[in-house]
Amino acid sequence: MKGYRHNAALTGGGLYDAGAWVPRGGEEIGVGWNIFTRVFAAPGGVIYGVMPNGNLKWYWHLAYRTGGGLYEAGAWDPRGGKVVGTGWNGFTQLAAGKNRVIAVHRTRVPLNLAARGVENTFCILHSVS
């Protein structure tokens, strides 16, 4: 996995605007992400991965602001890989915001988020058939 930080995400700064991107962008920040069926990022360097069995794993790239790479000491939170939910393999689309994951499920079946290890920090936006 390569890391890129768009400093101008909230202002719309483009490719050729000075300071729009962290200079160290494109540095390798992780390996082995191919074990996940889905990977998506949240604000603040948080990255989630969905395992084929439905487990949702949490990682925190602490060096996201500087573009710190895979082998930089302290670049990743040591608690990374923690299972924070189960049953996430039924979702077709996943996106994260601050303290929530927005998910689209492939069925219209009512979803029990508590059974997925999810408390009040995650929500379902929409379900599709």
Automatic annotation (TrEMBL):
Residues 20-102 form the Tachylectin domain. It comes from the Bacteria. It holds the Pfam family Tachylectin. InterPro entries: Tachylectin2 (IPR023294), Tachylectin2_sf (IPR036813). This is Tachylectin.
